[in-house]
Amino acid sequence: MSEELSGLRVVEIGTEISAPYCTKLLADLGAEVHKIETPAGDPLRWWGPFPGGRPDPDRAGLFDYLNSGKTRTRRDFADERDLAAVRDLIAGADILVENLPAGDVRRQDWGLDGDSLARVNPNLVVVRISAFGQDGPLRDRPTSPLTLQAAAGWVNPREFGRTPVQAGARIPEYIAGGYAALGALTALRVAAAEPGRPVEVDVSAYEALLSTLPYPMLLAERLKSMGLPTNTKAAPMLGIVRAADGWIGINCLTGQHWLDVCAMVGLPEFGEHQIAIMLGGPERDEFFAKVQPWLDSQSVAEIVELAQAMRIPAAPVNDGASILDCPQYRERGFFVPGGGEGWRYLRPGAPFRLSGPAAADADGTAAGPGEVDPSLPFRGLRIFDLSTFWAGAYLTCYLGAFGADVVKVESIQRPDAHRYSGALLRQGDDWYERGPLWQGTNLNKRDLTLDLNSERGRELARRLVAGADVVVENFSPRVVEQFGLDYDSLTGIKPDVIMVRMPGFGLQGPWRDYVGWALNIEQLAGMSAVTGYPDGPPCNLQGPADPIAGVHAGVALLAALRRRERTGTGQLIEVAQIEVGAAVTAEPVIEYSMNGAVMRREGNRHRSYVQGVYPTRDEDDWVAISVRDDDDWAALIAAMDAPQLGEDPRFATAESRRQHHDALDELFAAWTRQHSAEEVAEALTARGVPAERVMTPDRMYDVPQLDARGYYEEIEHPITGRHRYPGWPFRISPGPSRHHRTPPPTLGQHNAEVLGAIGVTAAELDELAAQQVIGRRLLE
């Protein structure tokens, strides 16, 4: 276990996944976590998996994974002595994490409201996780995991011609927990500057899901301005396909990847039809009919090896069984034993690895956090940002938002490849400045171009590192090593530097140099295998692995900064993205290692109650409905004006309703087809039944809840004009009042400013530009 958060005391009054995962991450970094359960116990104890499949609340694998390493007690909050014991724990804590529903009266009864906590511990950081946040018009809206996914745009048509489907294995609940941990450690910096009153972190799980999407609202806005359809059904190619012995993901990120794939499978004549095939045109069926015989003749391992040799991002689609045999996970020893006496299983290890000089061996001097501005808690922090695409850039965007000076390094020869995302939007000679995905990820930064293939560029990089606190990169490992910018080299320049490395596959292992992006991570980590219909293929989640990795890297970085302030020592932080993906998809590997059972894809279903996604009277408009209990069932019958269903013995209990799920799906669909999605959602939520219209990109700016909470930040870009950029899914009070500070920079915009600060003269800048070491325009 790491010791970065040694001495940090955390109290958790949480259930299920979001709050326990938040505190698990803090415990992984050395915090002391005390979990308090009610006498009834955390409901996750009854979720499983269980040894032999027999319910046993003391041997629940997923509960154990999320709560091992914590001190656990049960307290009756109706008993004054137990309440006094809880207050004593809170009085000695640094952080309290809870996930009671917003507006829950128990918060007052248990003394967890702001005023009560201020009397008990005025220096406390309080993290509150709820579905929609602690305020706004949707605060008290009934919700379920499915309907929350639907409202946030996570329920998608992942297979052509089929009903949109949710993400499996409860992955979204981990996402809220990850952001909560990030918010908690950020708030600690605010609390240091604002002693004497609690600092509250209000985490919205809804906004957390929106924050992991690849900026579909920005993309839709741009497509609309060009007169193009805003809700494209395009899917990355080839996507997930079946080989001779299993599923494989072949993921074309660029046009060159597509040409290489066509050559690999012996179908070069399709090289000019990528867009038509992605959009599902007639060429799609023809292409897949012709490629399948080649796929059938090859094993997954053979295709992965061939594709990777051609630098095509390809990966096996792992499930809970195959992931344990995956060479990269196995060689890195990622899965570790869990359980107790008489029962054992394997679970994911910590999703980050920290190494560096021990505090006793360090030559540095502890400096503390210095003067902290509560409105900009990272002010004074200097970041040298070598990141590309989304994962690393997401982390540095966050740091810059709250005050860090982030210098993003590109080159005019090879800019950040994320600028190439969105080929349909390449308008004008400055097309590389216009991409909504790049813009959304690179707010709050200064942009510097340096040709690191040149000695002069590397020399300038070393001078900049000498003044940096943190260096961030997420290339494949060999890239920064070739530039002489690996951790060992950097410590020779600045001994207390913290370096965050975020390779897709890790710094060691047989696959360390494989190419990959978000879809590979989803496929390797088991995320795709649990998403989709039982009778269909595994399905991609379409990108959230990148920001999820960025959030986890942020948690590790803030812990390392806290350690450096205490000891004066830097750190190497390794965040292998495939390990983060597996950490938030823990249940399948726990189930298999415990019981030898491969977790099935469940579509939109739930193991305890009936639910689904249903068509409405409007084509391509869907509504998600969950019927959690008998009260929901009675309310639904009333909304449908179908009292006869209440007398039907097939639907008398939750279990009988699940046994006749198909029949209920037909009845629900017949009713929803008569109405709009909004009519269904409003009729049901007014009666307390979770229901939501499935969100699409073109409507993501039209959500009063987001307006009420100030989720979007309107900023002027110098080329593309004003845009509303998504913010962060929590609010810290007291704390930052804005989500972003500056627009995304143009290529090389800050060359003179950044290099001038290290003594480069105007004449030298001209010379560097003439030698193309720096520049302001892309070299085509």
TrEMBL record:
For this UniProt record, give its keywords in alphabetical order, as a comma-separated list: Transferase
Keyword flag Protein biosynthesis: no
Recorded hits in Gene3D superfamilies, A to Z, give: Crotonobetainyl-coa:carnitine coa-transferase, domain 1, formyl-coa transferase, domain 3
Statement: the UniProt record of this protein carries the keyword Transferase: yes
GO terms, molecular function: transferase activity
Pfam families for this protein: CoA_transf_3
Tell me which InterPro entries the record gives.
CoA-transferase_III, CoA-Trfase_fam_III, CoA-Trfase_III_dom3_sf, CoA-Trfase_III_dom_1_sf
Q: Which family does it belong to?
A: Belongs to the CoA-transferase III family.
* Name of this chain's protein: CoA-transferase III family protein
Native source organism of the sequence: Mycolicibacterium hassiacum (strain DSM 44199 / CIP 105218 / JCM 12690 / 3849) (Mycobacterium hassiacum)
